From TrEMBL:
InterPro entries: Anamorsin (IPR007785), Anamorsin_N_metazoan (IPR049011), SAM-dependent_MTases_sf (IPR029063). GO terms for molecular function: 2 iron, 2 sulfur cluster binding; 4 iron, 4 sulfur cluster binding; metal ion binding. One of its GO terms (cellular component) is nucleolus. It holds the Pfam family Anamorsin_N. Keywords: 2Fe-2S, 4Fe-4S, Acetylation, Apoptosis, Cytoplasm, Iron, Iron-sulfur, Metal-binding, Mitochondrion, Nucleus, Phosphoprotein. Residues 9-171 form the Anamorsin N-terminal domain. Component of the cytosolic iron-sulfur (Fe-S) protein assembly (CIA) machinery required for the maturation of extramitochondrial Fe-S proteins. Part of an electron transfer chain functioning in an early step of cytosolic Fe-S biogenesis, facilitating the de novo assembly of a [4Fe-4S] cluster on the scaffold complex NUBP1-NUBP2. Electrons are transferred to CIAPIN1 from NADPH via the FAD- and FMN-containing protein NDOR1. Gene3D superfamilies: Vaccinia Virus protein VP39. It comes from the Eukaryota. This is Cytokine induced apoptosis inhibitor 1. GO terms for biological process: apoptotic process; iron-sulfur cluster assembly. Transmembrane segments: none annotated.
Length: 267
């Protein structure tokens, strides 16, 4: 029993079928009850009733199936999936099953590699073969009677598989840290009247004698003592030796657009 790693307080399920000798089953259950103790539990399930037994998920630490001496149990994909469901995360399944070592088409008995694949597809991990041995004369007779199968290339193989440390099909929410992007400050709406003043005609755009000059109401080029432009600029037409004012334009109220005097340090 040491090969199963059973200890006190564990829940163990023993799965049997019609090929399992009754006395051998009783002896196995007695030994398991001694190992698990009063705080443990040993459940005995017929493989044909396992799907209807309505066990809750993660009910057993260890499941033993087909390991009763003399058993020739075959495990369908549905049975293996149910065993994986009722195993606790980290729990182990140990099973024995007759296998076919020859290449036989449409054989009801799997090869060792196909049995290993079936265990993996059921959701188990770390699947491996523990032992391979010849069938006894009683087991060969049991295969003929209970499985209606006859072959000279049969062996008995013992395999194990472990349930992952999480429920099969479970999900977990990932915690993602996403910095919220700050949107740039909205630009203030443009005054329609100011936009109209700042719109130049096609003639103004093509006239090289038209220039923008800073000026106040008295015509100053800058605010005295500050180096800053006044609140308005003028649209002037330059002629040789003279300039004519065409339009007075208010400057936008934006500090970033204020022009400093040439050579003045930036703030």
């Amino acid at each position: 029993m040491a090969q199963y790693g059973i200890s006190a307080g564990q829940s163990v399920a023993v799965v049997w079928d019609k090929s399992s000798p009754v006395e051998a089953l009783k002896n196995l259950v007695d030994k398991l009850q001694t190992l698990t103790g009063d705080e443990g539990q040993v459940s005995v399930e017929n493989i044909n009733q396992l799907l209807q037994s309505a066990h809750k998920e993660s009910s057993f630490d260890i499941i033993l199936s087909g390991v009763i001496p003399g058993s020739t149990t075959l495990h369908s994909a549905e049975i293996l999936a149910e065993m994986a469901r009722i195993l606790r995360p980290g729990g182990c399944l140990f099973l024995s099953e007759p296998v076919e070592t020859a290449v036989v088409n449409n054989s009801k008995v799997r090869t060792p590699s196909k049995l290993c694949s079936a265990l993996t597809l059921s959701g188990l991990v770390e699947v491996k073969e523990l032992q391979r041995e010849s069938l006894s004369s009683e087991e060969i007779q049991s295969v003929r009677e209970h499985l209606d199968y006859q072959s000279d290339s049969l062996l008995s193989v013992r395999m194990t598989g472990k349930k992952p440390n999480f429920e099969v099909g479970s999900s977990s929410q990932l915690k993602l840290s996403l910095a919220k992007k700050t949107s740039p400050p909205a630009k203030p709406p443009m005054d329609p009247a100011a936009a109209k003043l700042w719109t130049l005609s096609a003639n103004d755009m093509e006239d090289e004698s038209v220039h923008l000059w800073p000026c106040g109401r008295t015509g100053e080029r800058e605010v005295k003592g500050t180096g800053e432009l006044p609140a308005q600029v003028g649209l002037w037409k330059l002629l040789p030796g003279r300039r004519f004012p065409l339009r007075q334009l208010p400057l936008p109220r934006d500090a970033g657009l204020q022009t400093r005097r040439a050579g003045a340090p930036e703030q």
